[in-house]
Give the backbone structure.
Amino acid sequence: MQRHKILVLTSTYPRYAQDTLPPFVHELARRLTDDYEVHVLAPHSAGCKNREALNGVEIHRFHYLPASFETLAYSGGMLPGLRRHPWRLLALPFFLGSEWIATLKLLREHRFAVIHAHWLLPHGLIALMARALCGYRPVVVSTSHGADVYGLQGRLAMALKRRVVARCAHVTVVSEAMLASLRESMGGAGHYSVLPMGVDTRTRFTPGSPAVERRGLLFVGRLADKKGVDVLLDALSRMRDMPDLNLQVVGSGPEEARLKQQAERLGLQGVVEFTGPIPNGDLPDWYRNSSLLVFPSVVTAYGDQEGLGLVPVEALACGCPVVASDLPAIRDVIRDGETGRLVRSGDPAALATALRELMRDPAQREKLAAGGLAYVRDRFDWSGIAARYAALFAGLTSKP
């Protein structure tokens, strides 16, 4: 029996095997290959192959400018990058037009049963526009990860999002908070469900040896404004009396230079180390060797905030306790006092107090780590989440 084909549209995708980019789109795609023939269309970037196969997934990359200028998608996120470097808007029409042409070409070369568009804008809109001209009617499912719901609030963006939601067969969001926001902003239209991205909690993100001594604080993520690293640095400046105070900042992004200047201004040399991005395969050891993961996210001036945040899930799966901002989507992962500690977002004093308490209380850290490990294994392991996506696609394609 011939397998149905799925076309995945995304702007976040590993460019090579040991990339440092978040791999969640690929992790889902490869887990669907037992039931589907999966193709992914992603933007090209310098050093990428135009086409390759990875873990059974056929990957196609579209050019939109000469390679040295293809910087929209792989530089700390499209939206933060555009806000930090407005001149990149000049490349946006070429990006959108090239993706639409590449999508239409693939739809005509293959008979896809499903188009799975990650993010309502631009990929959900492009999927629908290409489907209108391809000569048949594949099912369109769009997954929103947060920035497209919270960070795009202008009149035109809202109108386009409503159009996408109304015309998709189904829309998934990655947290309960996003579901409420989308229903409110879209007027209740559309077919929604909460289906987060997952983590391999069984073989990859797992606790290390109990004999390993955990040390120091850890931040992992894009260095973008909504991640709140500036709040974390302010908190650390209030904690310099703590012995052996140390923070490893893993990641890169548009705010990196400003954050390094802030750390220097606050006198945190020797306390904070900016390690840069690291390959995804190395992350588990960083979580296993750290006393606490700090996830200090904030709501930006333009309304963007976390859609879920897989970093706390990864850390908890590795037995690393978490201190995080008390934002709606993060509550899907962190239950205060049970699976981690929540603190008021954007409040460096409250964050410093929580960090002090947990750094001085190993027993409490162990309690939170154990509760968090059980929680994420039950709710965020890829095996269950991929099965739910496969069932969703099967149900939509079986309808007359």
Observations:
- The chain has a mean pLDDT of 91.
